[in-house]
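sry for the spam today, last one i promise. struct tokens for design, 236 residues
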């Protein structure tokens, strides 16, 4: 038993001696590496080339004018004056369409028998004539084309009959429009458009008497079954 203890103690002593020898060798190697690093000389890197900074431009008043114009303490110094435009006027309201009592051809082309409303006198009108604020552009046995405020309105003869016009002119029970109607379109006091049949259109509302000569044409008033009408014929 004592022999085994002596052997074990001997092995421990040998192990401690070997560990101390290995530790001493590692310490000496670390010390030598540290000394070599400290003794090494590092070559200095060359300095970068020197380039001077660009010169600052001179200060001008235009560069700091916005500071004075946009001051928060006095908004009135802002030179941008806000102009408040008035609202645009409401669009004109189209008046009631004229009443059509039919079309007929008396040898001078197809014409329409129109009235401004169901209580106004009839007018025998060819294309190019005006009635109220409307201008008669075209007429045939089925449709009538009118012009108002630069817009063309195409309606069938039944749409412009007296019964339809009366219903369209009846006031609405609610939301009455208080906007005054636009003034009637002025009527040219003289020959109208050329019909291509040797005479020009005429309006009984131009204020000129029968036989008036203007622009080389003579106003001729004649009676139709639906009232008086007129046209401008070449003066001889």
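last one done:
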């Amino acid at each position: 038993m004592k022999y085994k203890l002596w052997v074990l103690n001997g092995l421990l002593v040998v192990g401690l001696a070997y560990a101390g020898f290995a530790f001493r060798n590692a310490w000496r190697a670390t010390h030598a590496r540290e000394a070599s690093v400290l003794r090494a000389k590092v070559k200095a890197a060359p300095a970068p080339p020197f380039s001077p900074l660009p010169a600052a431009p001179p200060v001008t008043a235009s560069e700091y004018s916005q500071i004075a114009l946009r001051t928060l303490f006095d908004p009135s110094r802002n030179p941008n004056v806000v102009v408040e435009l008035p609202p645009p006027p409401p669009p004109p309201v189209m008046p009631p369409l004229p009443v059509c009592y039919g079309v007929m051809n008396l040898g001078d082309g197809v014409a329409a028998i129109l009235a401004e409303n169901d209580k106004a006198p009839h007018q025998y009108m060819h294309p190019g004539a005006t009635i109220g604020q409307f201008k008669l552009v075209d007429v045939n046995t089925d449709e009538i084309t009118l012009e108002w405020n630069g817009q063309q309105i195409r309606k069938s003869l039944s749409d412009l009959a007296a019964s339809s016009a009366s219903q369209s002119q009846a006031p609405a029970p609610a939301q009455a429009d208080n906007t005054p109607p636009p003034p009637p379109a002025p009527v040219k006091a003289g020959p109208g458009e050329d019909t291509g049949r040797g005479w020009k259109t005429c309006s009984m509302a131009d204020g000129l008497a029968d036989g008036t000569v203007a622009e080389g044409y003579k106003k001729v008033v004649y009676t139709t079954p639906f009232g008086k009408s007129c046209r401008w014929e070449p003066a001889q």
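Residues 99-168+185-234 form one domain. ok im logging off now
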